[in-house]
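A quick aside before the break. I want you to see a complete sequence-to-structure record at least once, exactly as it would be stored in a machine-readable document. Don't worry about memorizing anything.
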Amino acid sequence: MTHPEPAAPPASLTPYTLWELVRYMMALGTWGFGGPVALVGYMYRDLVEKRRWIGEADYKEGMVLAQLMPGPLAAQLAIYLGYVHYRVAGATLAGLAFVLPSFLIVVAIGAAYVAYGGIAWMQSVFYGVGAAVIGIIATSAYKLTSKNIGKDPLLWAIFGVSAAVTVITKSEIVWLFLGAGVLVWLVRAPPASWFGGRLHGVAASAPMLAAAAAGSTDWPQLAQIGAFFAYAGSFVFGSGLAIVPFLYSGVVQEHHWLNDRQFVDAVAVAMITPGPVVITTGFIGYLVQGFWGAVVAAVATFLPCYLLTIFPAPYFKKHGKHPGVVAFVDGVTAAAIGAIAGAVVVIGQRSISDFATAVLALFTAGVLWRFKKVPEPAIVVVAAIAGLALHPLTALP
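That is the input. The structure line, written in tokens, reads:
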């Protein structure tokens, strides 16, 4: 097997091998708690600031592409960053390495859930971990904001509007991202033709490819699972949490695969396990039809986002330095970071329910602010233990 020739990074960046990137993505998928907001923050901190493998411009382009295309934000960014210097091979291996650890974890939890009829301690763990995660993602959101928005009043205005809309609607609106990009483009660099219409045609074909791939099985229910989750991965925009209402309507109300309690447990599993939140589809698939249900659901969910990343990626790489594209990227980035900041509030409303969880969230943020090298997994373990100790007390009269 021949290894792909990497695209030479600029002199200011540190060279790295494909396998170093794969190892990093596998580690992040194993210990990366906090959902999409925290995960994209980890990638920025580790790959742009610390290791200097990825340039600021490439990271921002990846964020824009991940925000504009449907599917899980963090997984798409991981795929794009793999593409930056190692093209399709890098995108494929980085994406697999990022998703596989959390998939194996949720399959193991699914097996235990089925064997023992539910996991009562899960709510206690989530009580502590969910609160600590707010501190983690708030810190990540602050770093992204301070680094990318700068002092530009237009970008701050976009940031504020996007954050407010996210808090009010509790969702991320792709048209807001597009509008922000167009606005900054018109202000800074009045338009010229960028992509000649080719990007739209390529991107539009990817969901059909994903749906066809997911529906090729001979087993009727697996085919139904594949078709549903391929549709979810192809047409639901926003971060991992944005897919939850869509999943509920299909999994519980339409197909009746799970009841309300099982669905809530599935979301809790996604929140207390590392990696992308959307991996809850693997847990749901396992509950519906065992291991192969988990495989089909996970593949059908992530295949569209993979295709919708690698097809547009060459155009982003080729035209990314055009002044109009740079302005568009800056606008979308400001809106995306605003949505991430708003998501901290939305998730916080769900996870911070009393004085103890508020203290845990503030304590986590304070520790990360004061001690830069404290590993997040250690914080998550302490928070889980605290949840197991404190949550039963909340049920006492």
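Two observations worth writing down. The chain has a mean pLDDT of 80. DSSP finds 16 helices and no strands in the chain. We'll return to this after the break.
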